[in-house]
Design goal:
The protein folds into four domains: 39 residues, no CATH class; 160 residues, no CATH class; 162 residues, Rossmann fold (3-Layer(aba) Sandwich), CATH 3.40.50; 69 residues, no CATH class. The protein is globular and about 75 Å long. By secondary structure, the chain is an alpha/beta fold. Helix 4 packs across helix 6. Helix content is 28%, strand content 14%. It holds the Pfam family Glyco_transf_18. Pathway: Protein modification; protein glycosylation. It is a single-pass type II membrane protein. It comes from Tegillarca granosa.
Length: 485
């Protein structure tokens, strides 16, 4: 705070003036980092003037949103997002109509929300904007599109930026594709354990990171809209054929997969949507039996999926939205199993990512929460298993609990450890991602000292961890059973 409080005018707007007292008051009363102090005595907070409160009114005014979603530069970085929003707007409009009929949406305060699409910026160096129609990453664009639609249609005042010179905010929620675990987020801990990278060390509350899939309850799950058209009149007229669509829009994704695809070809006609750049020489040749449509727009891609029986995973990209859209359109997803699981220690793609999560397949969410008969997770190098799986598709142990980090405070005690059967030779506190836990070697009952390190993903062979759990709705882990009513 001493070094950075002048970096953004919002700090001053909350009363920060450079004094240590103002730092403590801001960190306790605005951001909740420090315990609230008794400096205010019994002074009542000022009463709000009801006449100055603005309320959020649901709206389906697409053109108003398009005026907000204007790219500040010549690269047209928002073009794909605008295209997806226009294509799906009738569904958003009908959704808010149904929601308004089922719930009273009046009386909600209008919030001012800044959505900063950082990976679209020139400074990021990722060239998301330049590659959005050349086979570049689209999963993030899908999620951003749906987030923007949700906030706007619910009536909030949103500002959309992508360049750093537009950015002026100190209250952050980060859309984070793969998640950020507490061990990597806490800068002091990450540095002392030599795991600090440019992705981590943000020192935010772990639930300020919003993930695409429910990777870990340590972070918040945001999700995205799965586009499907099965109930459309035109869709009902489309006949499903004995064909498969390969999930691999770039040629390099096909490398080393020809034996696998040759087996698929024995049973179905093989289609693809591979982007090819004639100016760039590729080491991979797409087989002649593959009918390549090139990159398709949304409508044509979903038509192809509705015509197909199979959606063939190649192992990459990891955890994209496409398999869920294929499943929603009636295709069965063959999900490559990873032996051993992919993680930051054995896979180049994950090196430096702020997570030790192990991917047991290309799409772990589909593997765990959807499963057969819509998803078959198999070893695609076992060609006999591939044959048997495709035959099965063409012819024809979860305990239902998930860790809930918001309840760690309630179980972080020796008393609860003993209630769960622990026999404690010694009681102590420690700062690490594994606690509260029982050390099975020496029977130490260990309580977590640092609340920011409460974690659902930490594991150590000699520790039997105590984690708070809840049930969930299959296919929608954000909801518990009964909560959706």
């Amino acid at each position: 705070m001493k070094e950075m409080w002048k970096s953004d005018p919002c700090y001053a707007s909350y009363g920060v003036d450079g004094s240590e007292c103002s730092f403590v008051m801001y960190l306790s009363e605005v951001e909740g980092w420090c315990p609230k102090k008794a400096w205010r005595g019994k002074v009542e907070p000022p009463k709000e003037d009801p006449s100055k409160v603005t309320y959020a009114n649901a709206t389906a005014d697409l053109e108003k949103l398009m005026k907000i979603l204007v790219d500040p530069n010549e690269r047209q970085g928002y073009a794909w997002i605008r295209m997806r929003i226009r294509r799906m707007w009738s569904r958003w409009s009908s959704a808010i109509t149904r929601l308004s009929q089922n719930q009273d949406l009046r009386g909600r305060r209008k919030k001012k929300i800044l959505v900063h699409l950082g990976l679209l910026s020139r400074q990021s160096g990722w060239k998301f904007a330049e590659n959005q129609f050349k086979g570049g990453p689209l999963g993030e664009l899908v999620q951003w599109s749906d987030l923007i639609c949700t906030l706007f249609i619910l009536g909030h005042e949103i500002t959309i930026t992508s360049e750093t010179e537009q950015l002026a905010s100190c209250l952050l929620r980060i859309v984070d594709s793969f998640g950020t675990e507490p061990a990597y987020n806490n800068r002091v801990y990450a540095k002392s354990h030599k795991i600090l990278t440019s992705w981590g060390g943000q020192d935010l509350q772990p639930q300020q990171f919003f993930t695409m899939f429910p990777h870990s309850p340590d972070n918040s799950f945001m999700g995205f809209v799965v586009e499907q058209h099965l109930n459309d009149t035109i869709s009902k007229e489309i006949k499903r054929k004995n064909q498969a669509v390969v999930y691999g829009k770039n040629e390099y994704m096909w490398e080393g997969k020809m034996d696998y695809l040759n087996v698929v070809k024995e049973f179905v006609e093989v289609h693809a949507t591979v982007y090819t750049d004639k100016k760039v020489k590729s080491n991979v040749t797409i087989p002649a039996y593959v009918k390549n449509h090139g990159l398709l727009n949304g409508e044509d891609l979903h038509t192809l999926l509705r015509q197909s029986k199979l959606f063939i995973g190649l192992g990459f990209p990891y955890e994209g939205p496409a398999p869920l859209e294929a499943i929603a359109n009636g295709a069965v997803f063959i999900n490559p199993k990873f032996i051993p699981p992919h993680n930051s220690k054995n896979t180049k793609f994950f090196k430096g990512k702020p997570t030790l999560r192990e991917l047991t397949s290309q799409q772990p969410y589909a593997e765990q929460f959807i499963g057969e008969p819509h998803v078959y997770t198999i070893n695609i190098n076992d060609l006999q298993q591939v044959k048997e799986t495709i035959k099965k598709i063409l012819t024809k142990d979860s305990v239902n609990l998930i860790c809930e980090p918001s309840h760690f405070r309630e179980v972080n005690s020796v008393t609860v450890l003993k209630q769960k059967g622990a026999t404690c030779n010694r009681e102590r506190t420690q700062t690490d991602i594994y606690y509260p836990a029982l050390d099975v070697d020496n029977k130490d009952c260990i309580i977590q000292h640092e609340e920011m390190l409460y974690s659902c993903v930490g594991a150590k062979i000699n520790l039997r961890r105590l984690c708070p759990c809840r049930n969930y709705v299959k296919g929608q882990t954000a909801l518990c059973q009964g909560c959706e009513r």
